[in-house]
Design a protein that fits this description.
The complex is a heterodimer. Chain A is an alpha+beta fold. Chain A has 26 helices and 19 strands. In chain A, the strands form four sheets. A six-stranded antiparallel beta sheet of chain A has the order 2-3-1-9-8-10, covered by helices on one side. In chain A, strands 4-5-6-7-11-12 form a six-stranded antiparallel beta sheet. In chain A, a hairpin with a 2-residue loop joins strand 18 and strand 19. The longest helix of chain A has 21 residues. Chain B is mainly α. Chain B has one domain: ACP-like (Non-ribosomal Peptide Synthetase Peptidyl Carrier Protein, Chain A). The longest helix of chain B has 15 residues. The relative contact order of chain B is 0.18. Classes of the chains: A alpha+beta, B mainly alpha. At the A-B interface, helix 13 and helix 25 of A face helix 1 and helix 2 of B.
Chain lengths: ~650, ~80
């Protein structure tokens, strides 16, 4: 991956983009591309590129052009099927001057026009300039692996891989987008295309933006889709479908190992990373080099499963332990990279992990994100299934007890469990056909954190964000199976807007490491979308077909282990172990004066929350999310609005 | 401070994050109003055991004993009298 930035300025003359502006933008992205910068100034367009050299180290500098230099491209990402595409384009007469994957973009555009994007198998944020037609094309990959943001200021369109690269070129000062924060305090991230910065948008995954002299047009070329009726599902036997899934994963993994630098893999000890490392081990010549992170807290630590896989695969493994204290001290730098509020500290250790990768001399890792969304792995899907089952007999006393299998802490007494289950998980039981049924409990819990908004801030919120999300759902969703609806919400929401960004790309790129995601190969996604839900979750056995497909590759303990969601230490990380007081920057940002000055949160309420955190004792999800959300918002304002450092 | 006042303060400060007494009526159901989630219930149980020197048995962890200030107060006073 790399970093890109650019300006389209239709005013011309003295307003044309110039090198100084582009320098100011791209220098903010040095972490994404430490191997060199490239520029193109061709009014009305200016392009800047920061390179992380992975394919064609000597010849692949960008921008890259077509034969007569009328088409130029800068791009962040990888086109994994570039070898096959190049072969086909060469037979059609295109002439290449590099060995890079980037170059297929300009020739494919020449050959197929805007539709060329459908041929790409990869992760990408592309900016292409067609000088003959005077049009700019911005394109983002199908699921949101590579980031791309833009804003419009009068006749100017500015874009970049990260918002920090757009800010130097703007005349207005950054301001927080209130509805985005409201959305984050519901869905864990703003609703695309909104960002936490007012007037700055992300190009949604699966879309392209065409800009010319007349304006901009947004077009969708891909979306997550599921069958609308029973005959839309695959009809093969379990064994047949498991075999097809395995073959697709083998190829998806194989092409993601294409690089002129060594490629490693994350190995958490969970099913997904175990699958990928096993595929690398069995089906490629790539030496298996793996990386993992561990935690001080035993309940979060997966080291024993990691060790099992390392021994099983004879992997050359590196491991680092993330101390609670590190999570606390590293939050500000983390928010500099996420550029948005987070409700969990999970991104922080991911940045520590990518630093380990870099220190060991690697620039690329394969990682298992996407498997849960594509193949039905999350507890939220199990929970939704149980609630659906329960909703068919709402008076049942024993149906909701199935939830106890998911959440052992609920296993106290039948009477108590029932009531609390009913009140928490029973949300929406009377309307199980609602599109967002699967996600209502989570959103409800998260939204409790809004009690900390200041009165003045609440007055700026004019929209019901759940209603907004529902209004933007595809019409076809109502005809999908409930399980598939949950997958869609999770893929578009959590995966695209949080996991791949704040916890993924941003934390990898902070240390100039590229992540590659075999489970998000669009062929895997499209195949899996047509699997009957019962093969994804067989009763309550999650990712059933994946386990079936990979059974012979993996130790039983890995296949059968209870899913452990990745979690990092939260609130305790912000309290100094020795003094028992909040870390200095935490005390400062959560002080009365800072809270009043920034204006988002109520100082009295936050004061009580902080007091509760300092006192110690059990801190539930709600309080954790609230404190991390409040603190990271305050950090965000300090960094981006006040433009201060720590 | 009476048991009732102690319990009210605890709930207001730790779950409603306010000292505004009008934010909590003694009869308000913690669950229905979304004041406590299941972790919150655990915290309340730990609190009343420590604060009032009582032991809450498993079968006593039911809404009738725990789900409002009124319920909690009655439960605590009963347990203290029996101890």
């Amino acid at each position: 991956m790399c970093g890109i930035a650019g300006i389209l300025d239709r005013r011309g003359g003295e307003h044309s983009p110039h090198r100084g502006q582009l320098d100011a933008m791209i220098s903010q992205l040095r972490h994404r591309g430490p191997d060199g910068f490239g520029f193109l100034v061709q009014p009305p367009i200016g392009f800047a590129h920061a390179r992380l050299s992975i394919i064609d180290l000597a010849g692949g500098d960008q921008p890259i052009f077509n034969e007569d230099r009328s088409i130029s491209v800068i791009f962040n990402g990888e086109i994994f099927n570039y070898i096959e595409l190049r072969a086909e384009l060469e037979t059609k007469g295109h002439r290449f001057y590099t060995h890079s994957d980037t170059e297929v973009i300009v020739h494919a555009y020449e050959e197929y026009g805007d539709d060329f994007v459908r041929l790409l198998n990869g992760q990408f944020a592309i900016a292409l300039w067609d000088a003959n037609r005077q049009r700019l094309l911005l394109i983002r990959d199908r699921v949101g692996i590579a980031p791309l943001f833009y804003t419009k200021e009068g006749a100017r369109l500015l874009f970049a891989s990260e918002i920090k690269a757009i800010l130097p070129a703007l005349s207005a000062s950054p301001r927080l987008n209130p509805s985005a924060l409201d959305q984050t305090f519901t869905f864990w991230a703003p609703l695309s295309p909104q960002t936490q910065f007012e007037h700055v948008f992300e190009l949604p995954p699966g879309m392209l933006l065409v800009a010319d002299a007349n304006g901009e047009e947004l077009r969708r070329y891909w979306d997550w889709q599921f069958p609308e009726s029973a005959d839309g599902y695959w009809s093969g036997s379990e064994e047949q479908l498991a075999g097809e899934l395995r073959d697709l994963l083998i190829d998806a993994t194989r092409i993601r190992l294409r690089a002129d630098v060594p490629v490693g893999a994350y190995l958490s000890g969970g099913l997904d990373s175990s699958v990928l490392t096993s595929l690398i081990h069995k089906h490629t010549q790539t030496p298996l080099r793996t990386f993992s992170i561990g935690f001080e807290e035993a309940s979060l630590d997966e080291s024993s499963y990691q060790r099992l896989m390392i021994d099983h695969l004879q992997a050359d493994h590196s491991h680092v332990v993330c101390a609670n204290a590190d999570v606390g001290t590293q939050l500000p730098d983390t928010i500099w990279h996420t550029e948005t509020t987070v409700l969990r500290t999970a991104p922080v250790p991911m940045r520590r992990l990518s630093r380990l990768v870099r220190e060991q001399g690697f620039k690329v890792v394969l990682t298992g994100e996407g498997s849960d969304e594509v193949l039905g792995g999350y507890d939220i899907f199990k929970e939704a299934k149980i609630r659906q089952f329960w909703a068919s007999q709402p008076q049942s006393q024993w149906r909701p007890l199935l939830l106890k299998r998911l959440y052992p802490y609920l296993d106290v007494t039948p009477g108590r469990a029932q009531t609390y289950l009913q009140n928490f998980y029973g949300i929406g039981l009377d309307r199980p056909e609602q599109p967002c049924f699967s996600h209502l409990p989570r959103w409800d819990t998260t939204a409790k954190a809004k009690m900390f908004f200041s009165d003045a801030f609440k007055q700026q919120l004019t929209e019901n964000c759940a209603a907004r999300l529902e209004a933007e759902l595809p019409a076809a969703l109502a005809r999908w199976a409930p399980f598939n609806r949950g997958q869609y919400l999770e893929a578009k929401g959590l995966l695209g807007s949080y996991l791949l960004c704040s916890q993924g790309d941003r934390m990898l790129m902070a240390n100039s490491v590229e992540g590659r995601f075999p489970f998000l190969d669009h062929r895997v996604i499209e195949f899996a979308a047509r699997l009957p839900p019962s093969l994804k979750m067989k009763v309550l056995n999650e990712k059933y077909l994946l386990k079936r497909a990979m059974q012979s590759y993996l130790p039983d303990a890995i296949v059968n282990r209870h899913k452990q969601p990745y979690r990092a230490p939260d609130v305790p990380a912000f309290i100094d172990k020795v003094s028992g007081q909040p870390l200095p920057y935490v005390a400062e940002l959560l002080s009365d004066s800072s809270l009043r000055e920034f204006g988002y949160f109520d100082p009295a309420r936050v004061g009580l929350l902080l007091k509760k955190a300092v006192r110690g004792g059990a801190i539930g999800y709600r309080d954790n999310q609230a404190l991390v959300g409040i603190l990271s918002t305050q950090v965000w304002h300090h960094l981006f609005v006040k433009k201060s450092h720590f | 401070m009476s048991a009732r006042q102690t319990l009210r303060s605890f709930i207001l400060e730790n779950y409603l994050f306010t000292d505004d007494a009008s934010a909590l009526a003694d009869a308000d159901s913690f669950l229905e109003k979304g004041i406590l989630d299941s972790t919150g219930i655990m915290e309340v149980i730990f609190f009343i055991e420590e604060q009032f020197g009582i032991k809450v048995d498993d079968e006593e962890m039911i809404p009738d004993n725990l789900d409002s200030v009124d319920h909690l107060t009655a439960f605590v006073e009963l347990k203290k009298a029996a101890a």
